[in-house]
């Protein structure tokens, strides 16, 4: 087997904490020029956008020089450019740093803030914000939290060490605990471990459970209850997309503020911060693969629905599970 060709480094710097887009021209296709391929490949950008970028010299090769539109099509050629950043609604909540050293940054992410650039969320993401605020352009995410989930996220400082930290999550070597607010139902026996097979199809908002070998395992415990609401500890043993949300919904205990489970009500509109998903990544615990240190980090955020309900209801006849 031949050695994989080395990807050249980006000749463009970041913009607003966001990396340039890298494109590698594929084999085949019958394109005569770079322009023909890019116009077809980036058709969603709109008519005239690619031509405008080429004319302005905004698309460059590995040497940082602008690439002409009539440049002969060359399979394997790398190109870079900065996408036009969309108008983004600013998430008006703090992104707190709970730990920082020469290897990692641990941030306490608010609800509604995406972890990494994706789709319409680009500069207004935890990664881009931290790169700008900390002045660390090499920062990368070791894992992701859903945009609607708050809590702890691990970032790496040095690109060459990122794989070591990502492998902690892949190999299930990170202890994670979440908290959630959901309906209380005395008929649901807890604690329990939920096992199922979850699939998430590209382009479909909600994940779903299907028959087959379980690939998602979650421990669900009731910490306390006040009347109709329960405060739960959720401990995932695996990391499927929306796993905890799917499992809580399957138990008949959908997490408060969830726009997807059990019924898809659509994506949360931009600028609507009125109903945060009551799910919080409370703790991260692991042995640092680079330094060997034992780490345990705890979020200081409070789930709003639970704290507001307890304050309103006052001490009931049973703050503990019953």
Helix and strand layout, with pairings?
Blueprint lengths: L20 E4 L9 H8 L7 H7 L22 E4 L14 E5 L3 E6 L16 H9 L5 E2 L8 E7 L5 H9 L4 E9 L8 E8 L8 E3 L5 E11 L2 E8 L6 H8 L28 E9 L6 E5 L5 H10 L9
Keywords:
6 helices, two-stranded antiparallel ribbon, elongated, disordered C terminus, eleven-stranded mixed β-sheet, 322 residues, alpha+beta, 13 strands, Pseudouridine synthase, single chain
Total strand segments: 13
DSSP helix count? Answer: 6
Global morphology: elongated
Overall mean pLDDT stands at 91
Low-confidence stretches: 316-322
Name the helicity range: 10-25%
Domains (count): 2
Judging by the overall fold, what is the CATH architecture of the largest domain?
2-Layer Sandwich
Q: Largest sheet at a glance? A: 11 strands, mixed
Estimate the strand proportion.
25-35%
What structural class do you assign from the helix and strand content? alpha+beta
Characterize the structure shown.
By secondary structure, the protein is α+β, with helices and mostly antiparallel strands. It folds into 2 domains: 21-81, no CATH class; 96-313, Pseudouridine synthase (2-Layer Sandwich), CATH 3.30.2350.10. Helix content is 16%, strand content 25%. The chain has 6 helices and 13 strands. It has helices spanning 34-41, 49-55, 126-134, 162-170, 243-250, 304-313, and strands at residues 21-24, 78-81, 96-100, 104-109, 140-141, 150-156, 175-183, 192-199, 208-210, 216-226, 229-236, 279-287, 294-298. It is elongated. The chain starts with 20 loop residues before the first strand and ends in a 9-residue tail after the last helix.
């Amino acid at each position: 087997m031949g050695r994989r060709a080395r990807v050249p480094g980006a000749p463009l710097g970041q913009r607003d904490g966001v990396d340039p887009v890298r494109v590698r021209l594929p084999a085949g296709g019958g394109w005569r020029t770079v322009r023909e391929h890019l116009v077809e490949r980036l058709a969603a950008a709109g008519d005239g956008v690619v031509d405008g970028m080429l004319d302005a010299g905004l698309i460059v090769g590995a040497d940082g020089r602008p690439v002409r539109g009539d440049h002969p099509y060359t399979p394997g050629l790398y190109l870079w450019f900065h996408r036009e950043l969309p108008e983004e609604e600013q998430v008006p909540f703090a992104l707190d740093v709970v730990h920082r050293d020469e290897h990692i940054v641990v941030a306490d992410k608010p609800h509604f803030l995406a972890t990494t650039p994706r789709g319409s969320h680009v500069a207004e993401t935890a990664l881009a914000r931290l790169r700008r605020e900390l002045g660390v352009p090499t920062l990368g995410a070791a894992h992701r939290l859903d945009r609607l989930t708050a809590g702890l996220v691990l970032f790496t400082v040095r690109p060459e060490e990122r794989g070591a930290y990502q492998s902690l999550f892949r190999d299930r070597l990170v202890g994670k605990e979440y908290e959630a607010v959901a309906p209380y139902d005395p008929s649901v026996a807890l604690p329990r471990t939920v096992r199922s097979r979850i699939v998430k199809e590209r382009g479909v908002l909600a994940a779903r459970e299907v028959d087959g070998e379980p690939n998602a395992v979650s421990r669900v415990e009731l910490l306390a209850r006040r009347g109709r609401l329960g405060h739960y500890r959720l401990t995932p043993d695996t990391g499927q997309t929306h796993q905890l949300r799917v499992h809580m919904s399957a138990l008949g205990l959908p997490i408060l503020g969830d726009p997807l489970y059990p019924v898809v009500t659509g994506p949360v509109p931009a600028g609507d911060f009125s109903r945060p998903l009551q799910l919080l990544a409370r703790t991260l615990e692991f042995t640092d693969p680079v330094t060997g240190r034992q780490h345990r980090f705890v979020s200081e955020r409070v789930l709003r629905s639970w704290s507001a309900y307890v304050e309103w209801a006052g001490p009931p006849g049973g703050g503990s599970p019953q």
